Amino acid sequence: MTSELMSLTWVTALTAVLWMPYIINLIAVRGLIDAVGYPENPKPLSGWAAKMKAGHANAIENLVVFATLVLVANAAGVSNDITVLACQIYFWARLVHVVAYTFAVPWVRTLAFATGFGCQVALLLQVL
Q1: Number of alpha carbons in the 13 Å side-chain half-sphere of residue 114
Q2: Distance in Å from the first CA to the final CA of the chain
Q3: What is the predicted pLDDT for the residue at 21?
Q4: Which stretches within the chain are classed as H helix?
Q5: CB 15 within 8 A of CB 56
Q6: Where are the domains of the chain?
Q7: Cα(93)–Cα(91) distance, integer angstroms
Q8: 33-75 tens-digit pLDDT
Q9: How far, CA to CA in Å, does 92 sit from each of 14, 34, 113?
Q10: Could you tell me which CATH number the domain at 3-127 has?
């Protein structure tokens, strides 16, 4: 497995588990019955959990772009120091992004997002 595919695996694993903390909060706030049901007036998630849910949605949206670029690069046989570094940085940028989003850390969330986007651009440029 290439380093880029390993990074994609880690990014996917991170994205795959991000729902767990906010679902635990959902159960704690609403109770199990309302958490698995469709209450008419559901209690809102805690502030941090609502932000984490939004961060998770953002991670999913960006995973589509990142995964496509990694898979296209892999299929085209494009692998170099830039693609490896971009993929590794992307993982850490996404981790920082969701933590900063969850805990409302100003500027850090935006910088982490911009870093991840820059990694996607670097991959695109290497493929093109």
Answers
A1: 5
A2: 22
A3: 95
A4: 3-17, 19-30, 32-36, 47-76, 81-102, 108-127
A5: yes
A6: 3-127
A7: 5
A8: 999 999 999 999 999 999 999 999 999 999 999 999 999 999 9
A9: 10, 35, 11
A10: 1.20.120.550
Token readout for 85 is: 């570094």
pLDDT digits (tens, 9 = 90+) for 2-15: 999 999 999 999 99
Instruction: Look at the alpha carbons of 33, 24, 54, 107 in this order and tell me if their dihedral is positive or negative.
Output: positive
For Cα atoms 85, 87, 93, give the angle at the middle one, nearest 5 degrees.
100
pLDDT at 55: 96
Please report, for residues 37, 74, 76, the alpha-carbon distance to residue 119 in angstroms, rounded to integers and kept in the order given.
40, 16, 18
Q: Cα angle vertex 61, ends 75, 16, to 5°?
A: 85
**Helices 3-17 & 81-102, crossing angle to 10 degrees?**
10
